[in-house]
Structures are given as C-alpha cells and as structure tokens.
Amino acid sequence: MSVLLLLLAFPGQRIANLPTGVLPESRVWQLNISHRFLPAVLAPGWTSDPLQLFGGANVRDVLDKSLSDRALVGLNLTISTRELGLHGAWAPLDWLTVYPEINTHLYGFQPDSTWFNLGLCCHRTFGEKLAVVAQPRYTTNTSEHLVSLGLGAKTQVVNTWSLGLEAEPVLLGRDSTTRTIAWSLAVEKEYGWHNFIFTLGSPLDQSAPGMFRSQPGDTSAYAGLLEVARGHFRLGFNILRKI
C-alpha cells in the first residue's frame, strides 16, 4: 500500500509524479504526456557525451474524462514498457482524493505483470501561495506488495510559475531491485489550458512500481539515496492539455 500524505489543493494537478488532489472542472477531456529520460545527469561518462541522457525515455500518455468536479476516469498507455492501464480519481471530501489504478502488459494478460495501485491523497492549501500533500499508496500484483508514503509541497513563485518538491519512500516490501525512495523537483508553468512541468529526479517511470525500480545491474536498495548523494538525477517533463 502506498500512502501519499499531501495536504494541499493547489492549482495544477501534479507535482512531478505525485497528484495534488486537485481534479479538472466537470465534463472536460484532458491529455497528459510525460517523459522520463533514463540516463542520469552527472553519471559516469556523461561529460564525454552529454546528449546520451536523451538516448532513451519512458513515455506515458494519459487521457482523462472528468465526470464531475469530484470524479474522473482515464486510460493510460506506457509506450516503453508496453503497458495499458485504467485509473480513476474520486474526492469524497474537500481534503481527500482517492486514486485507484490498474496496469497490465499490452500483449497478453499475466498476473505477475498486472499491478494495482491505491493512493489516498490528503491535500491542503495555505493561503494562495503554498500547498502540501501526503499520500499513502498500496501497490500489488498479488504476489508482491509495496507500501509507500508520498510527501510533497508546491509553492507559487511568481504569477503562473510554481516550484514543487516530492519524495516517496518505500516503507514495506522492498527487495534487491527496489529503491528506498523516489524523489523529484518540479518547475511548472501554466499557460492557458496547458500546464508544462519540467522535472529533475530519480524515478525511471511515472507510476508505481516502476518509479521505485533500479536500473538493470544496480542491485542496491539504496540506489535512490546514493544518486542524491552523488548529484545524479534524471530529466523529464509533463505536458497537460485540456481538450
């Protein structure tokens, strides 16, 4: 189970990977395209070929339909891992939004490659400039189980620019391929019906359990913390558009 404890309802629906609990207005369609480039900046060898950090990326496309101002359903496709998923969001209370999600392999249903997530996003704003979020999340494929806690904050810097920081440690269920923590820094620009989010962080993917996985060959459960200590991070972006 993954718990995201984010206490804010701030303009914008995400920080980097964590939701803010804010849902789009009723009866609109929404498209979200996100990339997470795989090579880490400042990793060994990057100075001799800096462009290698754009050599591969996890790409996730999401199409949402808001049913009301308190509920939405959506379809997501992760191209790089060939995964197809369904997700939703429901806000039973002003400060609580529930996020269920299920993902499976695009070419054949297999129990081990089918993952279910449930996040409980608690959110709160302080004035017009600051929002905080906490989300516990439970992730399972019936044979493996992960419990994580996402914490985040987002502040408006000037006009339509905002800055966000999030961290989601894995509390239960780690193995040799699971990171201790996924963290990201986000810079967001809102322009009309578009939100552009530039991210720096450790995750290889945009959703659990992929966001907690280490790269092949890295068996350290502390890979995420070691990357922070070494100054390694991955570039990424989200583009959100109402249609």
What is the number of helices? 1
Largest sheet: 13 strands, mixed
SSE order, as H and E? EEEEEEEEEEEEHE
- CATH homologous superfamily descriptor: monomeric porin ompg
Low-confidence stretches: 1-10
Q: What's the alpha carbon Rg, rounded to whole Å? A: 17 Å
Which shape, going by the Cα principal axes? globular
Portion of residues in beta strands equals: over 45%
Count of spatially separate domains: 1
Terminal CA distance: 33 Å
CATH class: Mainly Beta
CATH fold name, please? Porin
Question: How helix-rich are the residues, as a percent range?
Answer: under 10%
- Class derived from helix and strand content: mainly beta
CATH architecture: Beta Barrel
Give the tally of β-strands.
13
List keywords for this structure.
single chain; mainly beta; Porin; 1 helix; disordered N terminus
Summary of the model, kept short:
The protein is mainly beta and 243 residues long. The protein has one helix spanning 223-230, and strands at residues 2-6, 29-37, 57-68, 71-78, 83-93, 96-105, 115-126, 130-140, 145-158, 161-172, 181-191, 194-201, 234-242.
Can you give a write-up of this model?
- The protein is mainly beta and 243 residues long.
- The chain has a single domain (2-242), classed as Porin, CATH 2.40.160.40.
- It has 1 helix and 13 strands, in the order E-E-E-E-E-E-E-E-E-E-E-E-H-E.
- It has one helix spanning 223-230, and strands spanning 2-6, 29-37, 57-68, 71-78, 83-93, 96-105, 115-126, 130-140, 145-158, 161-172, 181-191, 194-201, 234-242.
- Strands 1, 2, 3, 4, 5, 6, 7, 8, 9, 10, 11, 12 and 13 form a 13-stranded mixed β-sheet that branches.
- A hairpin with a 2-residue loop joins strand 3 (57-68) and strand 4 (71-78).
- The longest helix is centred in the C-terminal third of the chain and has 8 residues, at 223-230.
- The two termini are 33 Å apart.
- The model is unreliable at 1-10 (pLDDT under 50).
